[in-house]
Design a protein that fits this description.
This protein has about 230 residues and is an alpha/beta fold. The chain contains nine helices and six strands. The chain has two domains: about 140 residues, HAD superfamily/HAD-like (Rossmann fold, 3-Layer(aba) Sandwich); about 70 residues, Orthogonal Bundle (DNA polymerase, domain 1). A six-stranded parallel sheet has the order 3-2-1-4-5-6, with helices on both faces. The longest helix is centred in the N-terminal third of the chain and has 22 residues. The radius of gyration is 17 Å and the shape is globular.
């Protein structure tokens, strides 16, 4: 059976820090710190809603995280300005290696899926904007079961939707919590460590492989199967 690769989108294929440029006119030199806080709260809110079983889709988590960041950093934005930033979040740039790596992985015979907390339509629009949507068989969204990563149910959902087994399915993510969640659920996990400063959680679970760009994935995965 062909190997299935489930690619996390935000933070793995798409650079969430790309919103920094859009923030700069409103926040000045605080833009990088604001961007980081916004992303941290976005993830925190999805974790909390998943645990509480009080589901709201990812765009709502993102908007509420934006509201929190404004309050925390004492920055006033109008509703129209927040709408503009939210629209920018739907056109974030891909990381530089993505355009080159995805067709190589597809040509090698891997089955490629996008697998995200984001709603399928939002993710599809991001991938289309980055001109990489054609490399994916489908977009699998956790919204389809009204939960978020790293709930084990979402990884089981991915396996059902991609018609793959845990032995032949890999989760590719730049987010350690996602890799740990996938491996806990029986998938293999590849951590994309894009920064030397990035840390993996010191748990009892390690990624099956670590790469610095997704250009390294083909050889790294093939080596583990020898």
């Amino acid at each position: 059976m062909a190997i299935t690769l489930g690619f996390d989108v935000y933070g793995t294929l798409i650079d969430t820090a790309g919103v920094t440029a859009a923030l700069t006119p409103f926040t000045g030199e605080l833009a990088p710190a604001f961007s980081n806080l916004w992303r941290e709260k976005q993830l925190e809110y999805s974790f909390r809603r998943g645990l509480m079983q009080n589901y709201k889709h990812f765009a709502i988590c993102t908007r509420q995280a934006l509201d929190f960041s404004c309050s925390a950093m004492n920055i006033h934005l109008s509703e129209q300005e927040k709408d503009l930033l939210m629209a920018n979040y739907r056109t974030l740039p891909a990381f530089p290696d993505v355009q080159e790596a995805l067709p190589q992985l597809q040509e090698f015979g891997f089955r490629l899926f996008a697998f995200s907390n984001g709603r399928a339509a939002d993710v599809a629009a991001l991938l289309e904007n980055a001109n990489v949507n054609r490399y994916f068989i489908d977009v699998v969204s956790t919204d389809e079961i009204k939960s978020f990563k790293p709930n084990p149910a979402v990884y089981a959902h991915f396996l059902r939707r991609s018609q793959s087994s845990g032995q032949e399915a890999w989760l590719i993510s730049g987010n350690p919590f996602d890799v740990i969640g996938a491996q806990s659920a029986g998938m293999s996990g590849a951590w994309v460590k894009r920064s030397e400063k990035a840390l993996f959680d010191p748990w009892e679970i390690e990624p099956a492989i670590v790469v610095h760009t997704i250009l390294e994935l083909r050889d790294a995965i093939s080596t583990t199967r020898l």
